[in-house]
From TrEMBL:
GO BP: any one term: antibiotic biosynthetic process
Gene3D superfamilies noted in UniProt: Aspartate Aminotransferase, domain 1, Type I PLP-dependent aspartate aminotransferase-like (Major domain)
Name the record gives this protein: Aminotransferase class I/II-fold pyridoxal phosphate-dependent enzyme
Active site, per annotation: 183
Positions of modified residues (N6-(pyridoxal phosphate)lysine): 183
Source species: Amycolatopsis carbonis
Length: 378
């Protein structure tokens, strides 16, 4: 049996290891200079918009919703084609999640569906750049702002991409990233919140550090002593340590290389599977400059599970991303029912993620293609 091919894999070099080792030998393992350096390095890829490093992509979403001052009674319009964290972190703030359907081809939040879902209680519209293809961010921003809400871009899949010539991170009021090992760059675990708003930035920075207020000008009792710190609003410890920030800064030096290789693999799959009548290859909209985190093949005629089992049997680690978020029992128990977003459910029933990561060789890609084609008798 050939070596098992996972659907995603990190790319770690000796330079990455050296960057981490340098921090381990220094004075700061956390809350030190590598954090500020990583945030500054990341801003070079977001159109200069400031970043707040946090412990995971899920933490980034939780922090972003806190920055938006989400409270019980507020509503968040969200895409269901995402990992559950996009919705769960809003629910953890007490908000009601209103799922709006997706575009049938990209799997991204549909502008018309989002516009139909907003109400006077909508505080945030949460779009997801599914598979690395940016959502219709300009139009979704118009929908959110017309409703007096903020646009949050869950860009866990799309760091380094752009929409209509503008960098991901510079289009939404709040943007969140994930640096999990399978993502487009990694800090092992980690994430970030990006915003151009000084107020939202300050709230995000405070929430990721317990809500601590150390600035005497902002304290209620500033004369207590030089040691004094206060909490005015509850926060959590979502600090990303220097060790992992150093890895992130090192990885960012190769983000363009990662993006290029992912695009090559994506194009190779597209070309090799274009004549297979039982599948649909993923589209790319005009104005989109994706960073392909996933290759979401669409398998027609109800044969997705059979192809999944066939490829897994060949040692090819395909995956399905994702079940509609409201299908999870935690949302079912809150009253959400299947059938809510027909496009998302149809997309899920067909989606199969083929292996995609920078160190995947052309021979590996051809092996996956051969596996798909053999299933269809080609």
């Amino acid at each position: 049996m050939p070596e098992f091919l996972p659907y995603g894999r990190q790319s770690v070099t000796d330079e990455d290891v050296a960057a981490v080792t340098e921090v381990l030998r220094g004075d700061w393992l956390t809350t030190g200079p590598a954090v500020a350096r990583f945030e500054a390095d990341l801003a070079l890829h977001t159109g200069g918009v400031p970043a707040v490093a946090v412990t995971s992509g899920t933490a980034a979403l939780h922090v972003a919703y806190a920055a938006a001052a989400l409270v019980p009674g507020d509503e968040v319009v969200a895409s269901p084609m995402t990992f559950v964290a996009t919705a769960a972190t809003a629910a953890l703030h007490g908000a009601k999640v209103v799922f709006a359907d997706v575009e049938p081809d990209t799997g991204n939040l549909a502008v018309e569906a989002a516009a139909a879902a907003v109400t006077e209680r909508t505080k945030v519209v949460a779009a997801v750049d599914y598979a690395g293809h940016p959502a219709e961010l300009d139009a979704l921003a118009d929908v959110a702002h017309h409703a007096g809400a903020l646009l949050l871009e869950d860009a866990a899949h799309s760091v380094g991409g752009s929409w209509q010539g503008r960098a991901v991170g510079s289009l939404a009021d709040l943007t969140t990233f994930s640096f999990f090992p399978t993502k487009n760059l990694t800090t092992a675990e980690g994430g970030a919140v990006v915003t151009a708003s000084p107020e939202l930035l300050q709230r995000a920075q405070a929430f990721r550090n317990h809500g601590l207020v150390r600035d005497k000008a902002l304290q209620r009792y500033p004369d207590e002593g030089g040691w004094h710190q206060e909490v005015h609003e509850f926060g959590l410890n979502y600090r990303l340590p220097d060790v992992l920030c150093a890895l992130g800064s090192s990885q960012l030096t190769r983000l363009a290389e990662f993006k290029k290789r992912r695009a090559e693999i994506h194009a190779r799959y597209n070309a090799a599977l274009a004549d297979v009548s039982g599948v649909l290859t993923p589209p790319s909209r005009p104005g989109a400059d994706p960073v392909w985190h996933l290759y979401p093949l669409r398998v027609l005629d109800g044969r997705r599970r059979a192809l999944f089992d066939h490829l897994r049997g060949l040692g090819i680690g395909v995956q399905v991303n994702y079940i509609p978020a409201y299908w999870h029992p935690v949302f079912e128990d809150l009253g959400y029912r299947r059938g809510l977003c027909p496009n998302a459910e149809a997309y899920y029933e067909q989606e199969l993620s083929l292996p995609l990561f920078p160190s995947l060789t052309d021979a590996d890609v051809d092996r996956v293609v051969d596996g798909v084609r053999s299933f269809f008798g080609i």
